[in-house]
Amino acid sequence: MVDVSVVVPCFDESEVIGAFHAAVVAALEPTGTAFEICYVDDGSRDGTVERLRELARADARVRYTSFSRNFGKESAMLAGMRMSRGAAVVLMDADLQHPPELLPRMLELHQHGYDQVVAQRDRSGEGAVRKAFSRAYYRLVRRFMEVEVVDGAGDFRLLSRRAVAAVLSLPESNRFSKGLFSWIGFDTVSFRYENAARAAGASKWGGRRLLNYGIDGLLSFNSRPLRLAVHSGLWLFLSALAYALWIVANALLDGVDTPGYATLITAIVGLSGVQLATLGVIGEYVGRIYHESKRRPHYVVRETERDASGDPAADR
Ligand code: UDP
Ligand code: MG
């Protein structure tokens, strides 16, 4: 029986993985809980798998799955939750930005009956620009999304077994976990901790990647952008109608010739802009439907700890 599974997505983390492992073991061993650590190597190219093999050989509590290529953190977390066997699951990053010292506290809160325990970071270890963007983004998200997403409440959280089951029961391929965790509900408690800078290596979230992640998050949880498109279309139509009436009235009452090359061009260009933007919004959703309808698996596994220990065909 395993009390806690620690699920760790790793992408090019060979520099920190050893220190991370030692820190987690040091934090959990004194609590006397039976734990396992499920590492998911997300197609790393820097020898992270070799590190994981070594760890698994040295420590029976280590299990791992290695992907055939980089499938993204969301897929890695999914794989980790699927392989986990613990009565509770903790999701955390490998780069020591999620302090393992907090684990006992999370377990304790879980024992008080909470299904989700969220460690909420402040943004002290981050650059000013990124901080500002994150703030603005979450403000936007709060206005748009039907589920509640809190700034700083990242993926460092503990989930009870039934919460994990609920997350795993959601079949979508476009996974935005922050939204999923909020969608499943259950009693949730959160506490704050001070953000630490990365222990080694670099963040894989450049500007573009974050932007795409942000768009995904906005679109995967609601259809309000579509509603917005409908609204702007309606308003434009109404104002065009009013303007047309005004022109007609003017012509009839005052006998004014209808001047209007500039008006015409402005109207055409303006409307085309709105139409294109709207098409774009629709396209985003259609693209998502297309993506979902392919029903592809979220990842492809290259190797697990069972391959490393003995029979290589055991898992296939
Ligand atoms: N990660 C992953 N796949 C990816 C990108 C990141 O599994 O494609 C992992 C990474 O190894 C780390 C965690 O996700 O454990 C968070 O990544 P990172 O530290 O780069 O993100 P940040 O802390 O800057 O948000
Ligand atoms: Mg990080």
TrEMBL record:
Q: Which GO terms describe its cellular component?
A: plasma membrane
Query: What subcellular locations does the record give?
Result: Cell membrane
Q: Which Gene3D superfamilies match?
A: Spore Coat Polysaccharide Biosynthesis Protein SpsA, Chain A
Pfam families reported in the protein's UniProt record: Glycos_transf_2
* Positions of the UniProt region annotated as Disordered: 300-316
Keyword Cell membrane part of the UniProt annotation: yes
Q: Which residues cross the membrane?
A: 228-249, 261-286
Residue ranges of every copy of the Glycosyltransferase 2-like domain listed in the record: 5-165
- Topology of this chain in the membrane: Multi-pass membrane protein
| Bias-annotated ranges (Basic and acidic residues) | 300-316
Keywords for this protein:
Cell membrane, Glycosyltransferase, Membrane, Transferase, Transmembrane, Transmembrane helix
Q: Which InterPro entries match?
A: Glyco_trans_2-like (IPR001173), Glycosyltransferase_2 (IPR050256), Nucleotide-diphossugar_trans (IPR029044)
Single annotated GO MF: glycosyltransferase activity
Family listed: Belongs to the glycosyltransferase 2 family. GtrB subfamily.
Query: What name does the UniProt record give this protein?
Result: Glycosyltransferase 2-like domain-containing protein
Q: What is the species of this protein?
A: Streptomyces roseolilacinus
